[in-house]
């Protein structure tokens, strides 16, 4: 016998999703579908255990399947607890839906939630993507997410819920004035509805129009990115040739792809203002990730968290390393580490006036005091350094004498005498740098 189709209902235990669960069970019985209630235990509030038990008890009473997952972990640094809880809630719902064999998840959002969302987005200065608010149906992570009650009002659902003989959970954070949505719900929406009775319907229409505009903007961005051959890197010259509106739109779409996270408007604004020429620059975008403009293209690179930009780094290659630390150098993938050492190091004052250059050929390096300076190739061969260990910046003093070569170390002619304070230098590749511990 073929198995029955499975519909999942995301049920917080609140009035709306409890009512939705009931209505879905009634429809499911008629249509021969199995209904499973999915509950996420956020582990953030004292009442959370009770809510999970109540939803489970309700499922037993209504003869519905029940799945529950307790969230693990905590927000990353800089992430709000609400954003973390929201993201993890949807991930947990997706896991549970798949585990239950459901391909569709129903959510209890209604017209008033949608109107609030549009207003909140407008108050944050959102564009079409934000104002599009919550889609009625969307495919994500291989599942269909649907909000069947997006056109129903809160009071309509309340009167249905009143017939069910249940005590829905009341989340006290919904009335907490620290949250913008609570302030809007408690103070602004009642006044708005009194003055404009159709406000909710009108705001939901804004969401639909914005959704259409967003779809057109997505198409234009995809077309522009294809034409300028943007992939993992965004070529800056053809991108700059776009009109300012299309440039902004394409940049936002490209960032959304490479960051795989919401794109802050502040980042878009900075990039637009700071990519007017091909100077090498970097922008930290959270975690270990850095956006870098280099050789006429913008790309996302991973670099060691501990890296800092040397204050004295300049486009002409001049550089000052004034303290022991781990440094990122513009235009180079990897990290330069300066550390205190007892031998084979360099006097710290020599590192205050450096010049960074790529290997040009013809440089001579001396491995030992009293040894002979030889070509880098010969010295690499003598030490058995493989090709992949030879990439990196060469450091010279202001007079052009070679001081440091990646893989070979400090030139013996620049070594400080034994017993005096001295610093060693080490270059690590991106893979090694990513593993490095913060200093
Ligand atoms: N902890 C949760 N577990 C399962 N689904 C949830 C949970 N929290 C929210 N949802 C889903 O997201 C929808 C909207 O959530 P929101 O936080 O706005 O509602 P709520 O006030 O918690 O509850 P309700 O919408 O049921 O009255 C819910 O209707 C429900 O479908």
From TrEMBL:
Alphabetized SUPFAM superfamilies for the sequence: Adenine nucleotide alpha hydrolases-like, MesJ substrate recognition domain-like, PheT/TilS domain
Family: Belongs to the tRNA(Ile)-lysidine synthase family.
SMART domains: TilS_C
Gene Ontology cellular component annotations, sorted alphabetically: cytoplasm
Keywords, sorted A to Z: ATP-binding, Cytoplasm, Ligase, Nucleotide-binding, tRNA processing
Superkingdom as given in the UniProt entry: Bacteria
Protein name, per record: tRNA(Ile)-lysidine synthase
Any one GO molecular-function label of the UniProt entry: ATP binding
Localization: Cytoplasm
Domain description: The N-terminal region contains the highly conserved SGGXDS motif, predicted to be a P-loop motif involved in ATP binding.
HAMAP family: tRNA_Ile_lys_synt
Entry function: Ligates lysine onto the cytidine present at position 34 of the AUA codon-specific tRNA(Ile) that contains the anticodon CAU, in an ATP-dependent manner. Cytidine is converted to lysidine, thus changing the amino acid specificity of the tRNA from methionine to isoleucine.
Gene behind this protein: tilS
EC number: 6.3.4.19
Entries under InterPro entries matching the protein: Lysidine-tRNA-synth_C (IPR012796), Rossmann-like_a/b/a_fold (IPR014729), TilS/TtcA_N (IPR011063), tRNA_Ile_lys_synt (IPR012094), tRNA_Ile_lys_synt_N (IPR012795), tRNA_Ile_lys_synt_subst-bd (IPR015262)
Catalysis: reaction(s): cytidine(34) in tRNA(Ile2) + L-lysine + ATP = lysidine(34) in tRNA(Ile2) + AMP + diphosphate + H(+)
GO biological process: tRNA modification
Main location class: cytoplasm
Domain Lysidine-tRNA(Ile) synthetase C-terminal positions: 354-427
Binding-site positions, ATP: 12-17
High-level lineage: Bacteria, Pseudomonadati, Pseudomonadota, Betaproteobacteria, Burkholderiales
